[in-house]
Design brief:
The structure is a single chain. By secondary structure, the protein is an alpha+beta fold. Among the domains are: about 80-120, no CATH class; about 155-290, Four Helix Bundle (Hemerythrin (Met), subunit A) (Up-down Bundle), CATH 1.20.120. It has 8 helices and 6 strands. It has helices at about 45-55, 80-95, 105-110, 130-195, 205-215, 220-235, 245-265, 270-290; strands spanning about 5-15, 20-25, 30-40, 60-70, 80, 120. Strands 1-2-4-3 form a 4-stranded mixed beta sheet. A two-stranded antiparallel ribbon has the order 5-6. Helix 2 (about 80-95) crosses helix 3 (about 105-110). The longest helix has about 70 residues, at about 130-195. It is elongated, with a radius of gyration of 31 Å.
């Protein structure tokens, strides 16, 4: 079943006087790219959380955000301005002493990830019980984003399948133009010869042999067969898990056959069908980029 790489999942768990909030956001990417923003209290779980998320989501640019919210009114987490200013000043001074070129924006972004930047943020040890609650919450967020990605994938699959089927239909339409094309080529060549060469000087047997050779070079039977095979394989692959990259490779092969078909068609009607095929293929490629 196809899953999209775009998704969002959120889970909240109560523990003591606070809520543990886990948010997962994902976008399309060529590979697995995980970024974390985790409360300092839970930093020791960073690798374990990355591993868990990567194993389940497989592919995509994934942002993991984990923070705590106080359940008591009036003591919500706020920025510790004094601590932030101290950190920024120290980092700026250190960068100048070490002759490191950096921007205030980069320093600020780094500082906001340091401990005690937010008031009410604990920096103590995490109990086994709290760790278990945290990991269960991460698992719930993974389940939510997986459902989101599955639903998005269903929409993607329907659109991709429709475009593949349209390419197959155009192959059938091309067949109706082939015999007409051959007759038109025969007539065009015969007319050109008649206008430029006297009929008595034409060796009809040799002419027929050359016509057969020329028409065989323009034959697109193999291209049509391979194109339909690639389309069939594409649809079979859509049933596999984590098939995004594989579908991308197959779509490239489909494109090669369409291009060859266009170069050998030598017919305006067939060329129009080829242009439509390319249009549908481009839509497929755009959608495949977002398939896990």
């Amino acid at each position: 079943m196809i899953h999209s790489m775009t998704g969002f999942g959120k889970a909240i768990a109560e523990y003591g006087d606070k809520n543990i909030v886990v948010e997962l956001k994902s976008l399309n990417s060529k590979s697995l790219d995980i970024n974390t923003r985790i409360a300092y209290l839970y930093h020791e779980k960073d690798l374990e959380i990355r591993s868990m998320v990567g194993e389940k989501l497989v592919r995509g640019k994934i942002d993991i955000s984990i923070y705590c919210e106080s359940k008591e009114a009036g003591i919500d987490k706020a920025i510790n301005e004094k601590k932030v200013k101290t950190y920024c000043a120290q980092m700026q001074k250190l960068a100048e002493e070490m002759h490191i070129s950096t921007s205030p924006h980069a320093i600020f972004d780094t500082v906001m990830r340091l401990p005690e930047v937010f008031t009410g943020e604990s920096t103590g040890e995490v109990s086994d019980e709290e760790s278990a609650v945290l990991m269960r919450t991460v698992q719930q967020a993974i389940e939510h984003i997986t459902l989101f990605r599955r639903n998005e994938g269903t929409v993607l699959a329907a659109d991709v399948l429709l475009n593949i089927e349209r390419i197959e239909q155009l192959v059938d339409i091309i067949k109706t133009f082939e015999n007409q094309r051959i007759e038109r080529i025969r007539e065009r060549i015969a007319q050109a010869l008649a206008e430029g060469i006297a009929p008595d000087n034409i060796d009809k047997n040799r002419l027929e042999q050359e016509l057969i050779f020329y028409i065989e070079k323009l034959d697109v039977s193999e291209e049509k067969v391979r194109l339909l095979q690639h389309c069939s394989y594409f649809k079979q692959t859509m049933e596999e898990a984590n098939c995004g990259k594989k579908l991308g490779f197959i779509s490239q092969e489909i494109g090669r056959e369409i291009n060859t078909l266009g170069s050998k068609s030598n017919d305006a009607n067939m060329q129009r069908m080829v242009v439509e095929m390319k249009d549908y293929l481009e839509r497929i490629k755009e959608q495949v980029l977002n398939i896990q």
